[in-house]
Write a structure and sequence with these properties.
With 389 residues, this protein is of the alpha+beta class. It is 62% helix and 12% strand. The protein contains nine helices and seven strands; from the N terminus they run ααααβαββαββααββα. Strand 4 and strand 5 form a beta hairpin. Helix 1 packs antiparallel against helix 2 and helix 6 runs antiparallel to helix 8. It is elongated.
Length: 389
């Protein structure tokens, strides 16, 4: 495992200090040794100039030996003390280097934290780093400028989808009215009525598609208001609205609705659960089963919808959350839906700061798990998002 940037800078600063300290200690040792040798020889010649001694050569040898021994002792003591001092100062330098690196990299931590919090629903956040115009400030400003461009692009995309959906709903509503009137016309031939019923079914599928696009555009926006929500009540309401007993595909519902609180938009959460139930019913088998569970796990409020059905290849699971994608990449069989159900689920969950995962069942079907922040965690996240960075 490679060390992080903060650790690498600390090691680099510490290594540079020890290298510089070792070079300084080596030069100090050499200079001190030369100075000691010169000073002791000069001191001896000054204290005994021209002294009449029995054996001048013998005394000179003894004096040199004594001077050398004293100089070696002094140098050894100096070297030992210098090494101890260098080690202590080196440890202090490493600690100081870590603190300096931490302070220097703190703006980068703010950039990283902001990037981790960002999603399509809160692109309004900015780093807004205050400080000298150095490399880190330029990086933060460049990141903020990129977020501005992304925010404008996503806003334009959502506005286009919403406007196009609104514009398309009017002619579809007119077509539906005309077809319904033609069906009630007593003079209409059976062929004309059959054609009108077929066109009415096509028109209905197009209306569901437009409604899904509009809801997808709305659910990808940031939540304007959050309130405490009991997920058990949300799931119960969604189950009342869903057709849990279709004629073509009878299913058995198993419920385990525990208490779980979160914060968000009840209508969006209700639609999220409704889409999960609708998906579990549509892609089930005759006499199949559906398990709906609500629970609290650690810091999350969890909704799990499990259903029997055809075997789903693991490599196809992630694609099911993409718009207009169905099992095995099917984009044609629109009679079974618009292909936006799980895309809307993911958009709603992302807007609430949660996660959604899907796992294939070995015997067929899916297990979709939605994890939402519990009430305290959701409130803390909302406060952090609203606080200026």
């Amino acid at each position: 495992m490679r060390l992080g940037l903060r650790a690498r800078l600390t090691v680099l600063y510490g290594a540079l200090f020890f290298v510089a300290g070792s070079v300084l200690l080596w030069f100090t040792y050499i200079l001190t040794a030369n100075a000691l040798g010169k000073q002791m020889v000069m001191a001896y010649t000054k204290t005994s100039p021209g002294a009449a001694l029995p054996s001048q050569d013998q005394i000179g040898v003894e004096v040199k030996r004594a001077v050398g021994a004293r100089a070696a002792d002094v140098l050894e003591e100096m070297l030992r003390s210098s090494l101890m001092i260098m080690v202590l100062i080196g440890i202090t330098a490493v600690v100081v280097a870590y603190l300096v690196a931490d302070r220097a990299l703190r703006p980068l931590d703010r950039v990283t934290e902001t990037a981790e919090r960002l999603s399509e629903s809160n692109l309004h956040e900015r780093i807004a780093l205050v400080g000298p115009k150095d490399e880190v400030k330029r990086l933060a400003d460049t990141f903020d400028a990129m977020l501005d461009r992304l925010h404008r692009v996503f806003d334009a995309q959502r506005r286009f989808i919403a406007n196009a959906s609104h514009e398309l709903r009017t002619p579809l509503a007119v077509n539906r009215t005309v077809l319904e009137v033609s069906l009630e016309e007593p003079e209409a031939s059976p062929d004309l009525k059959a054609l009108a019923r077929a066109l009415l079914g096509t028109n209905s599928r197009h209306e569901r598609l437009i409604e899904g696009l509009l809801l997808l555009a709305q659910s990808e926006q940031e939540l304007s208001a959050r309130k405490p929500v009991e997920l058990r009540h949300v799931v119960a309401t969604a189950m009342e609205q869903a057709d849990l007993h279709p004629r073509r595909r009878r299913v058995t519902i198993h419920q385990d609705l525990g208490s779980a609180m979160t914060e968000g938009d009840p209508l969006f959460l209700e639609r999220c659960v409704f889409n999960l139930l609708e998906n579990a019913i549509k892609y089930n088998v005759r006499d199949g089963e559906i398990w709906v569970r609500v629970s609290s796990e650690n810091e999350s409020a969890v909704i799990t919808v499990e259903n029997t059905g055809p075997v789903v290849p693991p490599y196809d699971v992630d694609d099911l959350f993409e718009p207009f994608r169905r099992l095995s990449g099917d984009r044609v069989r629109s009679e079974r839906g618009s292909g936006l159900g799980l895309s809307i689920v993911r958009a709603i969950v992302d807007a609430h700061g949660g996660t959604v995962t899907a796992l294939p069942r070995p015997e067929g079907g899916l297990v979709v798990t939605v994890g939402l922040p519990r009430r305290a965690g959701a409130a803390a996240r909302a406060a952090r998002v609203q606080r200026p960075v």
